[in-house]
């Protein structure tokens, strides 16, 4: 079993590393390859946008991975159980607010939430933390400020919307999911024999290779969207607020970009309104294809097929509301 897991992890690392190398190679040397498809100006625009988004986002991705790995290796899950109020309704906002000071990526938030449930934390609070930690931690907010210079309202809007969504989903669980049979509580896992430094190293390597692959795919998709899709079509979609919010929300689900880097991709989608780009940044860290897969494996398919659509719908509605209010 251990060998199979190691082979799977190794295969995933190779796949993402290969993706990174191929996309960077296309950005640097793709002009000759795509001359027949795009104009020379189009190729230059694609390469410039792709490299710009990737290079600008990479420092924040690395910082986020380092902090997330440190949290995984050096902070015991029991710390969160002791810090939360015993009353479930009060534990939800506290768990949501803890995401502001506790860094973590989407991939790390799922096992951390599972560990919280195993240590007696109410599922509603664990779900609130699951949604808030990757969306409003300091690295994410700092990267958003850099991606949208001179627009602090975008940072505030992202924090307020993501915090609100996490609390609403947590309280919604208390109202509808308490004692429900469609949440498969994860099995309690004993600590492994690896030391903390080895845990830190392996977590950092895994998260960087995993998130880095999604980053470059997202940067490539954003660059391609700006070059290939006709400007008239983009203008038509961007001209409709509801349609543009829905389209960018779906795009965030499919691209599955790391939350430390998605603001730079959102900033490059200049055809769309700030509200639509807010939806992209709110949806991505809390519901995307990799998170749905992780949640299915951790909490069971019955949980995932209900939780993902509900999260997506509430995130879009909250983005529209906060966008109308602040942006």
What does this structure look like?
This protein has 327 residues and is an all-alpha fold. The protein has one domain. 78% of the residues lie in helices and 0% in strands. It has 15 helices and no strands. The chain has helices at residues 2-33, 40-74, 78-83, 88-98, 106-118, 123-136, 138-147, 152-176, 196-228, 231-238, 241-255, 262-268, 274-283, 289-299, 301-326. Helix 1 packs parallel to helix 9, helix 5 packs parallel to helix 14 and helix 7 (138-147) packs parallel to helix 12 (262-268). The longest helix is centred in the first third of the chain and has 35 residues, at 40-74. It is globular. It starts with a helix and ends with a helix. The model is unreliable at 189-193 (pLDDT under 50). It is found in: Cell membrane. One of its GO terms (cellular component) is plasma membrane.
């Amino acid at each position: 079993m251990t060998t199979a897991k190691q082979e799977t992890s190794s295969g995933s690392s190779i796949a993402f590393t290969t993706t990174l190398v191929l996309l960077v190679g296309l950005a640097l040397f793709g002009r000759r390859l795509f001359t027949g498809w795009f104009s020379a100006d189009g190729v230059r625009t694609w390469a410039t946008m792709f490299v710009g988004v990737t290079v600008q986002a990479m420092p924040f991705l690395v910082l986020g991975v380092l902090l997330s790995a440190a949290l995984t290796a050096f902070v015991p899950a029991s710390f969160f159980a002791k810090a939360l109020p015993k009353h479930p309704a009060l534990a939800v906002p506290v768990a949501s607010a803890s995401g502001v000071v506790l860094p973590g990526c989407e991939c790390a938030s799922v096992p951390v939430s599972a560990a919280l449930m195993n240590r007696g934390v109410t599922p509603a609070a664990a779900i609130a933390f699951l949604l808030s930690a990757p969306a409003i931690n300091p690295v994410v907010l700092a990267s958003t400020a850099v991606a949208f210079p001179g627009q602090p309202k975008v940072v505030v809007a992202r924090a307020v919307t993501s915090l609100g969504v996490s609390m609403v989903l947590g309280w919604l669980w208390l109202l509808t999911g308490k004692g429900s049979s469609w949440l498969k509580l994860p099995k309690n896992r004993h600590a492994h024999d690896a030391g903390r430094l080895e845990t830190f190293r392996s977590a950092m390597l895994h998260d960087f290779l995993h998130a880095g692959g999604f980053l470059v795919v997202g940067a490539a998709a954003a660059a391609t969207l700006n070059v290939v899709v006709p400007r008239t079509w983009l203008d038509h979609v961007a001209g409709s607020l509801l349609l543009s919010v829905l389209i960018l929300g779906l795009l965030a689900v499919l691209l599955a970009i790391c939350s430390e880097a998605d603001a730079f991709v959102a900033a490059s989608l200049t055809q769309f309104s700030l509200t639509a780009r807010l939806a992209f940044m709110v949806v991505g860290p809390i519901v995307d294809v990799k998170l749905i897969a992780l949640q299915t494996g951790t909490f069971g398919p019955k949980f995932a097929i209900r939780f993902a659509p509900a999260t997506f719908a509430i995130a879009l509605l909250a983005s529209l509301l906060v966008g109308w209010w602040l942006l």
